[in-house]
Amino acid sequence: MIPGWHDLLTKISRLETGDWQAMGWLKRWFVATRAAVFVMTLFSALIGIILAIPNAQFDGLNAVLVCLGLVLAHATNNLVNDWTDFKKGVDKDNYFRTQYGPQPLESGLLSERQLFGYIALTGGLAMMVGAVLIARTELQTLYWMLAGAFFVLFYTWPLKYVGLGEPAVWIVWGPLMVLASSLVVSGEYSTTAIWVSCLYGIGPTTVVFGKHIDKLTEDTAKGVRTLPVQLGERLSRASVLGLWLIQYVGVTVGVILGALHWAYLIIWLALPKFFDAWRRYRQPRPEVCPDDWPEQAWPLYLVHVAFLYNKGFSGLMFLGVVLSVVLPVVF
Q1: pLDDT category of residue 234 using cuts at 50, 70 and 90
Q2: Is residue 6 part of a domain?
Q3: Most CB atoms closer than 10 Å: which of 34, 241, 281, 293?
Q4: pTM above 0.85, yes or no
Q5: Per the domain annotation, does 7 fall within a domain?
Q6: Residue 122 domain-assigned (yes or no)
Q7: In the chain, how many domains are there?
């Protein structure tokens, strides 16, 4: 069945070849780039943008451009990721990636030439947006853009293959995206933005941790030495729990020290979701789909738990960011 726009933006859709052929080119692009995960990028960009509002200068057009540019960069990374894994044979033989959604090349939905067309178009648009932002700001924007390009090109290989994929995700979705967004819309970033960026980046990092724990066995067999492969499942699950705790402690300490507005304490409303995620991460990953788990989501398990929890926590942190800017003005 051809997925609707809501499905394309909220989950990784499973497709038959006929469904793919019946879709328009825009929906195909959303499927191929795995658009459901763009929400993490938008949160990063919007957090940086909103934190820049109190600064002396604020450029609304740059705010729109940086959101667009970062989403296009994320999409390019996902396409490059699929091509790299395909060329290295990682996604062959019903590998984890092909079980939960279509890998464009492995599933036969796109040829290499067609995928390169997607990469060229998406990456080209990202660079065009970046060039406009450089022209509208300062040369410093170029340096941030080059740092982002490094991770787009080299995340899948070699970073992910040597256990540096998870730290790279923290850098990109935390300090890099948040601070760069603040910088291009106002010409500066605050101490608060630095604090928040370091804590927010933990969320996407735990999502990637969850994905790599889910496919730990497959990655080990394929020689993909992600951090969970090197740490083992038990220590990796404990690491995710520790990272989530750091977010709560970091926000609370920030409020106590005066680095963050008290409105950030709203993140504690995520505790019910946290306890559910904690319960699942305390147990070894099941080898078969649990009875209380949606069958259509399997084999996504720990990554799905982390994604849903992070979505709720990040939404509350985003609300805290908004309130921290609005409340001082209103009151």
Answers
A1: very high
A2: no
A3: 281
A4: yes
A5: no
A6: yes
A7: 1
